[in-house]
Amino acid sequence: MIGELIKILKITVLTSKNSKEIAKKPWKLNSIRQTVTFASSSSPVTTTTTSVSPPQSQILTTRRSLLSGEITASEIAKSYLSRIRLTESHLKCFLHVSDNVLKYAQEIDQRIAKGEELGPLAGVLIGVKDNICTEGMPSTAGSRILEHYRPPFDATAIKKIKELGGIVVGKTNMDEFGMGSTTEASAFQVTANPWDLNRVPGGSSGGSAAAVAARQCMVSLGSDTGGSVRQPASFCGVVGLKPTYGRVSRFGLMAYASSLDVIGCFGSTVADAGMLLHAISGYDRFDSTSSKQEVPEFQSQFLPMDLFESKPLKGVRVGLIRETLEEGVDSGVRSVTQEAASHLEALGCVLTEVSLPSFSLGLPAYYVIASSESSSNLSRYDGVRYGNQVMADELNKLYECSRGEGFGGEVKMRILMGTYALSAGYYDAYYKRAQQVRTLIRKDFKAALEQNDILISPAAPSAAYKIGEKKDDPLAMYAGDIMTVNVNLAGLPAIVLPCGLVEGGPLGLPVGLQMIGAAFDEEKLLKVGHIFEQTLKGSSFVPPLLPNVA
Ligand code: GLN
User: Fold this and answer.
1) pTM
2) What is the mean pLDDT of residues 103-125?
């Protein structure tokens, strides 16, 4: 495995003597295809229903209903808990469901009864990826090495959510430490895609995405190191928002690759993902990489449809990234993306094609950097400082057994790859080279975003594939990250929202459109995303498992 990855890296990164040359030798998707097999091409599904009403924000609806007295927070919580009971045995989104959901909902009802002010997230039910620390609640990162761990503190994002009245429903399943694209690398269970139970929900935040898709919670948190919020959002037909690096504190997020990791948000609407992001954003003295940049009031971007002008996105410059529609992308995904681009044009956007010459170098550079950082970050789980201990009669044996039994196969492979890439003889050849590629990618994005307000691409080369299909072929799985990893390398914000369906499963499978913005310009992404979502005709992105849920 390491050999194969290194071979590809050699072809792409090592054979180029300088940065300019690197840019001239893009690692084409079809060259990856020679090594791996993708799911077969599918066709777009044309839906005939045009009367589907636009999706409604769950956060705003909850607030309105609570304030008008139409329903209580306890009734809302009970209905979600009963949906979890009904669907969870099929889906397996949660590793842990909180016992305190009703208690917190009752507290909100008491506040309402006393006429006390409610926080903006009052009564909002939130799923949390299991690598985000929640006080007193299991937080395992999907790993045996942290099985039974209950942190004595909340991550900053969780603290903020609780202060605003949000209720943590439970901890969602994930690929161990965020390493994977399907949730199959969880040490505990495999989550199913609510659109087709035989398919993966994507990953690594697959549990969080599937839980929102199945309406087991209203919104959820995930983490995105190379696409782990955006790709599962695409596979599950929900909105996934990856903020600018530094926008949200990483305090309490278990580190995978620190220079790439961000906490991100899932919702069934752009407004929900945006409001959740607003709640968790801002500088935090516990995270030196968090930014002091002001957090704008995103909510003003979520105008109701009757206030839209006839060309609500007039003059917005949109660049369609050429390299993301080249060979190697499923034909159904390609057509749905092109239709989405036409929809943006119809809304008044000025659409052009842009090229990111370094685009195809992102994938090998990402895997070198992410593995290297993870090999260092995960060294803390030695059974002494962190992680479950396996007893042994001498220290090295204790480390060996604790790590050997605590980590799963994918994590061990990443640690080995990272250690190899960082080792004395190879550091310049791999890690340094990958950092050079990272600089090139940043420059290409900067140039493209000077000419355009946002860039668009598919979120993944295919829709959700079958459980087990790529499990034994890690390179095929890694190749599926090609649309998302560059954005992390450049530290930019991006949103993925459902834009159409392709054939597969009982009702079709969702496809996500990725919109990428300039650093700290989440506001623009949310504005364009919201208008796009509210005006998109023909598809309702509610999975077939839930026929009665709007
Ligand atoms: N699939 C990618 C990986 O395995 C991305 C994961 C992530 O964003 N956490 O590294």
Assistant:
1) 0.92
2) 97
